[in-house]
Amino acid sequence: MDLKKQQPSYFHNRISVLGSVLSVAFFVIIAALFLLDFLTKEKDPFLETVTFLIAPAFLILSLLLIPGGALLERSRRRKREAIPPLPNIDLNNPLHQKWFYVTAGVVTLFLLFTAFGLYRAFEFTESNTFCGRLCHSVMEPEYTAYQRSPHTRVGCAKCHIGYGAEWYVRSKITGLYQVYSTIAKAYSRPIETPLRSLRPARETCEQCHWPQIFLGSLDQSHDYFLPDESNTEWKTRMMVHVGGGADFTARKQGIHWHVTGNNKIYYIATDKKRQTIPWVRVVAPDGKETVFVDKGSPYTAENPPKGEMRLMDCIDCHNRPSHQYKAPAEAVNQAMTHGAIDPSLPFIKREAVNALTGEYATSEDAVNKISLTLSDFYKQKYPQIWEREQAKVLKSIAAIVQVYKANFFPQMKVSWKAYPNNIGHLNSPGCFRCHSGRHQSGGGSAISNTCSSCHDIIAQGPLGRVEGDLKGLDFKHPDTGDADERQGMPCFECHTGENA
Ligand code: HEC
Ligand code: HEC
Ligand code: HEC
Ligand code: HEC
Ligand code: HEC
Ligand code: HEC
Predict the structure, then answer these.
(1) Boundary-marking domain end, from 59, 93, 125
(2) Nearest ligand, measured from the Cα of 229
(3) Ligand 3 lined by 423 (C-beta under 6 Å)
């Protein structure tokens, strides 16, 4: 049979020809972009999106035009004339053989290329670039905080996408919705937590951490500066009892007790952010159950509040392992400890905290007003310092602006207020959501509230007069005020994070 005598191929039509030309063009473009991506060190999110998502999508569309055009052509010819039978392919015919090998070769190459492309595309949708930088304005707070966290080297996907195929598919489906909501600007500001679909689970953290082996205590130092004229420096050093009590040590004490040795703690929160927890049930390894109820609430052991009963895991305490937005007082203390803000400037602690707690519409607005307020303060109240040590003042103001940029994102309404940290109890209830002293069982025992069950203070006091005792000290509140006023009051009722 002579192939040449047949009528022209269905592929001889404008759409298929256009498809072929575009396919070759996109193929060359993608190859060039791959090469460029391979050669550049500093990845550009837009270049990567074009290389791995947009250009391949166009390539596939162009390729689809080729058979699409042929199909159209076929149905057009069918209307005009009878369709000839499909040609016989005879592999003993050298011409057919040649065409067969060429086609098989091209298809294999193309499939290989597609497989690699798809792999890179999926890999890219899990990269930090895609998660953190592409939807820049939405993820800016998380990405900025992440870069300063101990988990900077841990990819977003490692925490936010669980193990296994099911999670993988789920993440891609919610991911599609997120891409949509980013484009349509349908996301909430701030992004609501606790997260429902991409929430890291206990298994996520346990890929790298194993709290069963935490024993003993962690030595922690805190440096504070009081809001007085001389910014009196105050030190507190404490041993935080992080032990969990591994089964093989037969010890059962310390903070990681909640998640080790088959202890199960269930709780019901009455608010969305899980900051109010009036009802807690403990199931001991031997099956014994104890229910603790906040005696200031209307609930009882048998009459729990409505709502989801949750099994406590790592994220109920460690809800900010990688996106921590610090409160003004805490952030300023740290910057003063490092010397970025100069502690020799009078009232700098008080003024810095006040400036940071102002309400600002945008970051630029904040930067301008913070700089202006602080320089005005020294110009007017301490003209000599302004004259003689202006460089010091300006350097400190620059550091305060940096504190703002790292912890406040007015566009997304993000700050420490939107995302309270559940570790501790200074600026939000944290551990005291359950360890309030009011949570009691029917038997009369309470979830412990004594300071030393969680940490021992081994040194405290103003710089130069720090007292120490390894057996532990009674906490001394660092101020000059009335101690009675504080008696029995939880810290977070006064310390909102915005008072200096
Ligand atoms: C060490 C684990 C970890 C890593 C790494 C991580 N996250 Fe998170 N992320 C969390 C946890 C835990 C939460 C809080 C979940 C909750 O409260 O339900 C969270 C919350 C979020 C939220 C909700 C808003 C907020 O600020 O709480 C966003 C958005 C987010 N992460 C994005 C990212 C992006 C983007 C990256 C990479 C740049 C990333 N995460 C890396 C653990 C992680
Ligand atoms: C891929 C591994 C990995 C995963 C997953 C991971 N972490 Fe980590 N985490 C690390 C490493 C590494 C460090 C130590 C960083 C350092 O010391 O510089 C760390 C440090 C920490 C610290 C100590 C922080 C500090 O201030 O010193 C805490 C707490 C922590 N991780 C909690 C978590 C929690 C909670 C999760 C789950 C949401 C988690 N991690 C998931 C690797 C991981
Ligand atoms: C009851 C609250 C709570 C729970 C639940 C909890 N942690 Fe912790 N964890 C703490 C506290 C408090 C610390 C010490 C202070 C800090 O991190 O600032 C800590 C410290 C850590 C550290 C740092 C230890 C070090 O030596 O630096 C890691 C890692 C960690 N936790 C991982 C986990 C993992 C993983 C889980 C879940 C299996 C978990 N934690 C569950 C409260 C908790
Ligand atoms: C249920 C456990 C628990 C109890 C009870 C408790 N604390 Fe704490 N406390 C913590 C944890 C956890 C932290 C945070 C440690 C860290 O920063 O990682 C903390 C932090 C602190 C800090 C440092 C605050 C900061 O962030 O700068 C002080 C001071 C303190 N506690 C004093 C007390 C005093 C005083 C009491 C008793 C009235 C008390 N705590 C009771 C768990 C507890
Ligand atoms: C959801 C409620 C809940 C939260 C939140 C919580 N705990 Fe607990 N914790 C409990 C319960 C319940 C017990 C066991 C009480 C009992 O059986 O006597 C317990 C026991 C402990 C113990 C052992 C106390 C002892 O008697 O020796 C320590 C230490 C501890 N918690 C520290 C913390 C710290 C630190 C935090 C905050 C980072 C925290 N807990 C947050 C519910 C909670
Ligand atoms: C009745 C209100 C009140 C209560 C309750 C309270 N504080 Fe304070 N705290 C203050 C005030 C006001 C200051 C500022 C110091 C001054 O005026 O001299 C301060 C200062 C501090 C400082 C030093 C300044 C800084 O940068 O943070 C620390 C640390 C502190 N408090 C810890 C605690 C802890 C821990 C608790 C709970 C055990 C607590 N406070 C309970 C009112 C309170």
Answers:
(1) 125
(2) 6
(3) yes
